Amino acid sequence: MTNPVIQQKLPEATLETLQMVGVSALLTALLGLPLGLLLHATSIGGLTPNRVVNSVVGFVANIVRSLPFLILMIAVIPLTRALVGTTLQWKAAVVPLTICAVPFFARLVETAVRDVNPGKVEAARVIGATRVGITVQVHIREALPALVSSFTVTVIALLGYSAMAGVIGAGGIGALAISYGYQRFDNAVMAACVVVLAVFVVVVQAVGDVIARALDHR
Question: What are 10-31's pLDDT values in tens digits?
């Protein structure tokens, strides 16, 4: 492979993509998991039903999820500048990526926890388990394989969004594909970017599947 762009810029762009997706995925897990548990706990049949909280949180989550990522990225530019001091490079992409992924993952968490056998929740109540104990020992534990699968789907979605982040100068493989593959008609660069993203998706999916199967003891 003798293309100088691929040799010199693709490794750097790959690292930037890994950084923006890695940090965003970590923040999404930290914020999305409790948000999803809150959505389930405050729903009808949850541990602490609360229509107002559930409606407000659910409404906000739905609004964010309804926004196309490109529009969301532009809309939160002032927030991005306030939080990271710049709107360029991979650090700037972490803000819109996280905002976009948190409600997405939260809804997946809510669905995964909802599928836990109600009989196990009732059994925990009978022996006097607290709400926190039921959430940790029953909901999260029983839904762990589904939660891992949900997180895998979220990370793959983040990979796709990260490519779009290149439009506003966030760097990464998306920016390289746009700058050289699209604007300069360098098909070799475009093909290399597609291959790298495809490899990322395959690896993330394979690792997620292995972990989910290992945690599934049914």
Answer: 999 999 999 999 999 999 999 9
